[in-house]
Amino acid sequence: MGITARNVSKRYGDFVALDDVSVEAPTGSLTALLGPSGSGKSTLLRAIAGLERPDSGQIFISDEEKTNMPPQKREVGFVFQHYAAFKHMTVFDNVAFGLKIRKHPRGAIDKKVHELLELVQLDGFSHRYPTQLSGGQRQRMALARALAVEPEVLLLDEPFGALDARVRQELRAWLRRLHDDIHVTTILVTHDQEEAMEVADRIVLMNHGKIEQVGGPQDLYEHPANEFVMSFIGPVNRLGNTYVRPHDIEIKLSPNGTTSEATVDHLVYLGFEVRVELTLKDGQSLWAQVTREDARHLELERGKHIHVKIDRTKVFGEIVESPV
Amino acid sequence: MTASRITLRTLALGYLALLLVLPVSMVFVRTFSNGLGAVWEAVTRPEALHALWLTLLVAVIAVTANTVFGIVCALVLVRHEFRGKALLNAVLDLPLAVSPVVVGLALLIIYGRTSLVGGWLAEAGIRIVFSTPGIILATIFVSLPFVVREVVPVLREIGTEQEQAASTLGASAFQTFRLVTLPAIRSGVAYGIVLTTARAIGEFGAVSLVSGKLAGRTETLTIYVEDRFQSFDLVGCYTAAVVLAVIAVATLLLTNLTSPKEEY
Fold this sequence. Notes:
- Chain A is of the alpha+beta class.
- Chain A has 9 helices and 18 strands.
- Chains A and B meet through strand 6, helix 2 and helix 4 of A and helix 10 and helix 11 of B.
């Protein structure tokens, strides 16, 4: 059920966008395809929607094979990063588009569109044109337009990527609530790990056209399968082959046998969190994350000699070439 | 206002007045200086009416053909990748680069009675040269690039996302074109049509070669103006010129009125 992509590959000339990718999004789930740019996440989403034709592999939506179907017949709702609003139509006509194509009766269209506009908090805007809306409003309109045809799945391609930070934050929380209400199987493409962790219940982390790891947000954070996952999900320090999260570095004023000597290089105050940049005795630099409270207790200042205890380090089998 | 701004304005307006407004208004003044009766008599002469009718017929056919071709061609140029695209792009500008007289000459060579194609068509009873089809062909040729050239940049600017969105919402290729693409390129198409119309009704060189200038039969308005001028019938000449100008202004106004104000 839900969405299944099986052994999907896609090349653009010499560039391998998708390399034998298999992935599943269970019915009713909200799955994030996460990865750096060029990782193939958008290509995979577009292949599911039928906007891109894979070189090989199969796409199933609700157990029905759709690999060779045109987008019109796939029953998907697609939301684009730059809204793809029909600029010459009012908000009402944008949302009604799919229903008019399906020749629904006028009364039913009116009712459905107004329900949806209420759902996306745009009632009262139905006679405006897209250019008279803010970016966040346009994207909510695009979402209502995609939902109008009651798609089996909802595909969101970096939907908040073009919005400013505050609006993005609001819309994430709003999307999470919306999904709790309507439960349509959703795939969200994003390059922002925080967004993926906040919104999705499952994360598919991609890199270089392959899947690195699939799991819940906590899974990926606490049990990363490799260096790439560890570096991409959350901040990380690297000491040779060893990886450690900055909040797993404990700062002490006296040595106790398990600590190493270090010097404070710089302090960055970020409200509740204080970022302590350090140099170990052997010359390696790293940074630790401490609370404002702890920083005050320890009387941290530039040049101060301290001792650090490094916990929960991870060593992975092979060395990755370029951790992000 | 600074002196330099006044100078600039005077230059721009003076240039327009001297080269455009003055001569055109002189034509109007001369036309009506003999009284409305003379003008009416000149307009309703059978040869004048025929020239008007022929001009409108040729313009409607040429504009329709070039609008359809122009939109299709722009879609091909912007949305498709193929070998010879650069060549097509260059060939499209040929009608602008080549003198209309050369176009007329080329049509004479191909469709003239002594030519292979022309002879073959004459046997089938179809006359191209010195007849309406020849005038239409010449007009289509000289007014060909305008719609393409106006639509291509608009099409590039709107991108393909709106069309992709329409397809995921269930619209067929034709529905997408009619409901999404066409309204989005409307302003470009409208301006292209104005330019094509202006060129079509104003064409002289190519038409004068292929039409044979047969009064009351193959004279378009521009040819008729020349004919009257050479016959020292100044009232007839000026009147026809005024009719030409009125058609051009009417086209402009009609396009401005029918295309709604840009709301975006």
